[in-house]
From TrEMBL:
The keyword tRNA processing does not apply. Signal peptide: none annotated. Zn(2+) binds at residues 142, 213, 234. InterPro entries: Amidohydro-rel, GlcNAc_6-P_deAcase, Metal-dep_hydrolase_composite, Metal_Hydrolase. Residues 65-391 form the Amidohydrolase-related domain. Substrate binds at residues 153, 237-238, 245, 269, 325-327. GO terms for biological process: N-acetylglucosamine catabolic process. Belongs to the metallo-dependent hydrolases superfamily. NagA family. It comes from Catenulispora acidiphila (strain DSM 44928 / JCM 14897 / NBRC 102108 / NRRL B-24433 / ID139908). Its EC number is 3.5.1.25. NCBIfam families: nagA. This is N-acetylglucosamine-6-phosphate deacetylase. Coiled coil: none annotated. It comes from the Bacteria.
Amino acid sequence: MNIGLDIADWSSPQSFLVTSISAPRVLLGGRLAGPATVVVDGGVVAEVLDGASPEADIALDSGVLAPGLVDIQTNGCFGVDFITASEQDWRRVSDRLPSTGVTAFQPTYITAPLETLLAGVDRAAAVFGSLRGAQAMGVHLEGPFLSPLRPGVHDPRYLVAPTPEGVGAIVATLTAERTRGVVTMVTLAPELEGGPEAVRRLSEAGVRVSLGHTDALAEQVIAAADQGATLVTHIFNAQRPLNHREPGVPGAALYDTRFTCGLIADLHHVAPEICTLVWRAAGGRVALVTDAIAAAGMPPGEYELSGIKVHLGEDGVPRDAAGVIGGSALTLDRAVRNMVGIGLDEASVLVAATRVPADALGRSDLGRIEAGARADLVWFDDGYHPLRTWVAGRSVFEAGSGAQAPDGSHRLAREHQPA
């Protein structure tokens, strides 16, 4: 289900003008091409033309025009923890994320009592439709059906097996009028009692099932794919490790092409050398994620992750009182720069932050610049710092002026305005 922005409801059709943007380099079909001109009509891409049209409404003379970035695992940012976010908090995050190039995000709730998680789903459902910056794609429940052997910073008190009743409570939200389709992804440990049935039931209900915080053997990971699991949450972190005789979770995920591998590319969770190996082994199946917490975009200090106290140090890594890494302070544009910086192909890195995560959630309208896709666009400079961001054809961020007010005043105009 398309959670968040309904283009037809954003404003009257008359407020969307046919708009064209030319750029010297554009991410098209998984490669950097150009020059090209992108034509936008009614909030979607109408067509892509070869060459820089002299009649383009906006002419970019440098950098890269890419689809808006898509973050499918983020617990919070800019001082906001999503599980406790108020309506004002949600809007603040939506308005500020475009400054990082992100135009679509899947908020993540980590382990808590199931009733707490579902209450958070209900609050999110009430506000998603009013967001005017980056759009929420749905809620990712990272727990509570996780292994006590691989908890990470998750509170072990709340880890439970996926009983039919617990899974049923999540499935019930998908058809309830207020929360219909809001839960889009669930991370679980498939080796737990009831795990295989939970994977099958959630998958059949339309939820993307990801494997994470799991001590599963490779054969259990592959069996979960047979039941419908399609992702692995933050590969190499909080899971049975790779071994030459027991491939564990990462080995199975890299081997089995049915899996999309979430990768936290802050170079702390996963070493640069391993990031490169993941890229080589699972080309086209790597989704860059931030796993960001409230500390992202904020100075060093104390923050909360689902009620857990986490300290962000000068090294930029959040840790709990025991020193365990608790999420990240990463932004997705930084993840792009990190991967390009270690020598990975620029186009493949951009695809990993756009099309791959969008496709992992079945969102063929996001993460690409092609006819029919939502006109979510980001203009990067040559160092991959965002200069301007558009959501459904509306300019929502411009470098030097902060996140734009979502009132339409910065909508792309038809008059020519060279950048």
